[in-house]
Amino acid sequence: MNAPEAVNETDAALLAHAQRLTAQAGRPAPKALTRLAGGRNNQVYRLEADDGPLVLKRYFTDARDSRDRLGAEWSFISHAWSRGIRAVPEPLACDRAEQAGLYSFIEGRKLTAAELTPGHVEAAIEFVLAVNARPRPALAPGSEACFSLAEHIATVERRVARLATLDSEVPHVAEARQLVSAQLQPTWAAVKAGILSGASAEGLALDAAISADQNCLSPSDFGFHNALIDDAGKLTFLDFEYAGRDDPAKLVSDFFCQPEVPVPLAVHEHFIERLTQGLGLDAASVARCRLLLDAYQIKWTCIILNDFLPLGAARRAFADTGAWAERCAAQLAKAEAKLELVGADDTP
Tens digit of pLDDT for each residue in 135-156? Predict the structure, then answer.
């Protein structure tokens, strides 16, 4: 998976916990573990055992964050694995009390944006379609799932509003406040007005609930930032802690708005067309896919700025990413770049 990070590999309590999970899975006990770098919200360890490496994932929990990260990921991967989908790690065992999961280890590396090809995008589309093959299980709604246009707007509105009060202890907080007040808030006001106008032109009622047959099972936070590619070119998708039932328009928008491995907007329309055919999307769903792209550029700007919120700071401390001031400066630059994409033309 990711490159190992120097940690205390003799943590007896953690290794003992890993051994209990491997016993539950019927696998040989691990003899050592190594912390893997790159976990943004969680702690991820490579376990060394006689029959090969495994992964132990410990999920972040906080009284201020009600997300069931383990439950969402375990349910989604278990569904995919039961359908014969092998583009995800194998779920082996979990401990809900300790918020930990045991998974197969995936050999591979992260893709870069420069490496992306139409074939990689097609693999992502095929994964979504395979996960959504009927009959679908009744998974819980995904994180921040939206089932009407009004809910999409309200979700972004909440995130923008949260950024009105930032943690004064976070490095570069003054610059972050300036970005929020001078750029983010006015841009969101313009985007929201555009959605309201577009919805009216399309005859879409803001409060109209999306019908059950127009929902999908969404990986959430879906993109090549959460994927590894091996030497043979096979993609494996990771990190489904926000997964669940959702609006396909949110899945599409997240896929194109995630900032780490940007997907060219030139294939936005193709992605919508393929999902329309494969999922049987109606005209209203297609319209939402097109209308909401800029709203999710705003939402992802807010996500990038999460480090400046108290809860974001707690999550990063749990994941122990280090280089705090440097990271905050980098997040500011990413947020500015993301805002510049609002209104970008997505036609080929």
Answer: 999 899 999 999 999 999 999 9
Based on the fold, state whether residues 97 and 152 are members of the same structural domain.
Answer: no
Per-residue tokens: 174 = 């003054």
Whichever domain contains 20, its CATH number is 3.30.200.20
pLDDT in tens, 327-341: 899 999 999 999 999
> What is the arithmetic mean of pLDDT over 313-317?
59
Helices 283-291, 268-279: inter-axial angle, 10-degree rounding: 150
Q: Are residues 181 and 315 part of one domain?
A: yes
The pair of three-digit structure tokens given for residue 31, joined into one six-digit string: 């003899």
Asked, for residue 165, whether it belongs to a domain, the answer is yes
- Written as one letter, the residue type at 278 is G
Dist CA 316 CA 318 (whole Å): 5
Cα separation, 329 vs 331, in Å, equals 5
Q: Is 255 helix (H, G, I), strand (E, B) or coil?
A: helix
For tokens 């030497």, name the residue. 231
Per-residue tokens: 48: 């060394």
Residue 35 has pLDDT above 80, yes or no: yes
Per the structure, the complete domain to which residue 253 belongs is given by: 142-216+248-339
pTM: 0.89
Q: Are residues 194 and 299 in the same domain?
A: yes
